Amino acid sequence: MAKSGIMLISIIFIAMLLLANFIVYSETLLDSECYTYKIYIPAISERGFGEAVETNIIVIKNGGELHVVGASSVGLDTLLSLLIAYIYSYNLNTSFFRNYTIYIILPSETTSVKGPSAGALLYYIFTSLSLRNYVPINISGTGALNLDGTVENVGGVPEKIRALESVGVIKSVFIPSSTAIYYEKSLSRVNVYISPVSSIIDLARIYGIYSYTNATYIKPYLRKIYTDYIKNIKNLSIKTYEYEKKLLDLYTYAKNIASSKGIHFSYDTQLLENIYRDLPKNDTYSYARINTLFLLIINSYRDLLTQLYYIDKDLYSELINDLINRTEISRLLISKFVLETRKILEPDLIILYIIFLRRSLDLLDLYEKNGGFREKIINISDLVYAYARSISLEYWYNLINEYTDYYKNLSLYSTDQDIKDLYALKETVNKIYGILNISYMLREEHNLFNKILNFTYIGSSELSEYDKFFIKLLIDLVILENLFENYSYNLRSSSIITAYLSSGTEGLERLFSYYNYLASAENFINIFSPIFLRNMFIYSINVLLSYYFANTTVYFSAIRVLAEVESLIFVLMLLLHPEEVPSIHVETKLSLSTLSCLETQRINKSALQTFPEGNQLLSAKGWISLSILFVVVIGSVFILILSRNLMLIRD
Predict the structure, then answer these.
(1) 109 with 144: CB under 8 angstroms?
(2) What sign has the CA pseudo-torsion 33, 38, 39, 43?
(3) What is the pLDDT of residues 583-612, one digit of tens each?
(4) What's phi and psi for 19, nearest 5 deg?
(5) What digits encode the pLDDT tens for the residues 1-44?
(6) Is there a cis peptide before residue 158, judged by omega within 30 degrees of 0?
(7) How far is it, in rounded angstroms, from Cα 7 to Cα 339?
(8) Is the dihedral of CA 142, 144, 146, 152 positive or negative?
(9) CA-to-CA distance for 99 and 115, rounded, in angstroms?
(10) How far apart are CA 174 and CA 195, in angstroms?
(11) Are the C-beta atoms of 213 and 542 separated by less than 8 Å?
(12) Which residue among 44, 92, 223, 479 is least enclosed by CB atoms within 10 Å?
């Protein structure tokens, strides 16, 4: 009996040992109200020196917000990168972000942490926190985060790395692959491990984050009705072909005039014609052919008019009038869009509305800037561009009608539901405006709305309140899309130019082939089905992968189109999943409630520990758990020795 009792007690103590071990090392430690980490953010000072900005991350169980503390102000690019990093981390572990608020505490009045260069590091921090519950202090990095999760080029990398080396604890630094190509020789002499990354997928794979979950960083595209539009519009390719033929006829007309007058087109124009001829003649490349023809029309008519003025002024004036009259037709299309188009809140149609209205506002800007082109022509390029814009409006308007007719036939939409959805979208837009600190854009919405009415001669009384609200909401979305597009375009241009400057087309080949730079973009586009977006994407990717840098017009047009596609998708993602849009606050110092929380938890900010694998500071609960563990271990050893001695005595 004595032996059995002793063995039972031993088993109980061993069970307590395992339980204590679970208490200490399991994620239940996150039930603590507060816990904190230290990281180092590489930056460039105003004087051009590298800095390793010591930054504290505090996580408090009181969910769903993000606070940036210590900076006097945060720029738009920084806020955009913060938003993108948060959303993609959110998708990996939504429960964490719903339950915990994150504070990024910078040194007081920090000015060096600016621009988008901390985007990739922010994603790494958020993802590591949400999936592993710690952030290693010996890892840092730099890189701007694009809309599709691509890690883009940033400046001052050698200076940043030297600053991180001087800290003494940093062992590994990740940098954009484009930057790694550019600084390849100088980075071979640093004393930290350099990890080139092209996307957040690379970042997570290299540092083992995704091993904690099978989740993807992009949420699948959800919609009320999922129907592949390609299967329902059988004559779409025929209409696209007819439209393409119309554009080709316009180019041929300009080319024939140039030939008859002995005018030679520029090298860019000739190269564009060769590119168009080489494009496959199937539906997948329809937008690629159409967009190349648009560029051909812009370049050829600009070449023609610039030289024709000195050769045949009568013909020059005739062509100018033809172009002006064509822009006037756009008034009718825009009027029809405002007055007649049924506004249906389907994702595909929202994208088309944004595209059409964006091009309409581009045309209005050119029209206003040049006094309606009725006086002396100030800028031939503006007139030619306005002419091309007016032609493109016809393409997008016809596409809107095709989609609208299809969704009308479904008869699944009620006006009451539309109004509710409309107000919900407006609330999300206002929230995003607030996060990005661009609430002043609301005034621009009113100005642009009046500009549309003035251009189309539509009186405000002719519109229903619903239509007014809808058009103003679309203007908001155009402003946001333009904001995201410019952000994406500038980042991608920087990466591609940097790789090209390092070693020409060989640098581009390394970027795209070896580092798989566009992999994240390809993953991103797969969540949406509209054929027109896919065709726009295919056009961009094929031009970029061709390394056809000789024609900068084509190359940077492809970068712009890719930025437009991704900005449209990103804006729609925000609208479809408003719960993912965080509340971001920029504050000069911690609130009293946060300080109180830290004090009640008795966290010793100076006692840096690595627990369990990172630099988490042990809370009171952690020390209690360790004390229990210590007592249980000693007790278990004592009981085991006692039981062994008793067994020897019995024998």
Answers:
(1) no
(2) positive
(3) 888 887 777 666 665 554 443 333 233 323
(4) -65, -45
(5) 555 555 555 555 555 545 544 443 333 334 457 778 888 999 88
(6) no
(7) 86
(8) negative
(9) 29
(10) 4
(11) no
(12) 223
